[in-house]
Amino acid sequence: MINSLSPNGSICISHAPTATIKSSEIQMESFVLHYPLYLSPLRKIPGPPVNNFILAHFASFLNQAVGDAHDYLAKKYGGIARYHGLFNKPHISISDPKLVQQVLEMVPTFVQAGHKLRDIWIKQIGNKKEERITIIAIIQKITLDVIGLVDSELAKAYRTLFGVKENESLPVYEQLTHEELVSQVVILLAAGHETTSTALSWALYFLAKYPDIQDCLRKEVLDVFTDRNHFPTIDEIDQLKYLECIFKETLRIVPPVPLLRRYNLKDEIMNGHVIPKGTPLMISIYARGDDAENFNPSRWLDPEIKSKISNTHFLPFSAGPKNCLGMKMAHFELKSILSVIIRNFEFRLVEGFTFKKKLSGFAKPIPGIDLFVSKVDY
Ligand code: HEM
């Protein structure tokens, strides 16, 4: 077994008679240690030479503070640099802002989903001028797909929170049962895709209902999306201020989760009334007020209105310690998909088509929303 180093850094094998070491074992160890330097595709990325196969760069600059070590790599080797950790394992240090975005951003996943939806509708429309499409069915599949695509991250987070080993290491009375673990996954799936598909469907409905607003949004998007295959970055999505207004206005008028429920853990006095412990306390977050039903995205640009908005006035993601965990994801998912879709299609109401808002659970349109969809040919 490999367990020590000779003074010159080469590998010594000890504590085992030479005769008992299989040559395949030596070959394997040699392969593991040499692969990163001579065969791995990462070997071409610039980085400092390795002089010690076991400690690798822990024998040199990795002994410094983390910030200093990575600063050294960035200055000497640029925005992407290779270094080696224990047992010669290659690591990549990333400091190029574009690459940082590529690693940390979920936006490409959402844009990809937008492109997928676009391709499906382009196929459906074919050579026709326009096509009547029931939009929510496919949008639901796309948002479920997104959960699947970001699943690796979610799954990691999930495993960290509820991982079987971690769960098993807890005292029995604190462990989650198998059913509880399964229900957490179901909550995550439902919370993560029913909400976004509902919001996206309502946004398209409002844009079809108000063609001027739709044109205005498309004009803003076209300034950034130079061609139909444009793959926007997070900064470009952030730049679209009218899109942000449409996102907020849709959630204001039709919050996908319209009712919040809490139970008081002890008797409370509210406005002079005694509320016994355990009473269901329901908070409706539907918009209220004179102008509440009007779809007017520009209101979000009014500085006076903006200054009055607080967590208790605009609650589509709730507030407090149990608020929505996926708020940021939903924000970029909706805006990415909507920008791709509005860049590529025009939407028009189907005269005489009616639907209802579901009264309980998620505020879905029932039986769905049919719209006329046509391609944007520029
Ligand atoms: C437009 C999209 C979305 C809206 C409007 C929304 C809204 C909400 C609301 C109102 C709550 C309830 C909080 C409370 O009871 O106080 C909630 C909880 C939650 N949301 Fe979202 N959400 C959205 C998207 C997402 C996404 C994309 C994910 C994750 C991928 C997600 C994950 C969760 C989770 C895990 C909870 C906590 C559930 C629980 O503790 O029971 N949500 N969301």
From TrEMBL:
GO terms for molecular function: heme binding; iron ion binding; monooxygenase activity; oxidoreductase activity, acting on paired donors, with incorporation or reduction of molecular oxygen. The keyword Plastid does not apply. The keyword Protein biosynthesis does not apply. Its cofactor is heme. Heme binds at C324. InterPro entries: Cyt_P450, Cyt_P450_CS, Cyt_P450_E_grp-I, Cyt_P450_sf, Cytochrome_P450_monoxygenase. Signal peptide: none annotated. PROSITE patterns: CYTOCHROME_P450. Keywords: Heme, Iron, Metal-binding, Monooxygenase, Oxidoreductase. Belongs to the cytochrome P450 family. This is Cytochrome P450. It comes from Gigaspora margarita. The lineage of its organism: Eukaryota, Fungi, Fungi incertae sedis, Mucoromycota, Glomeromycotina.
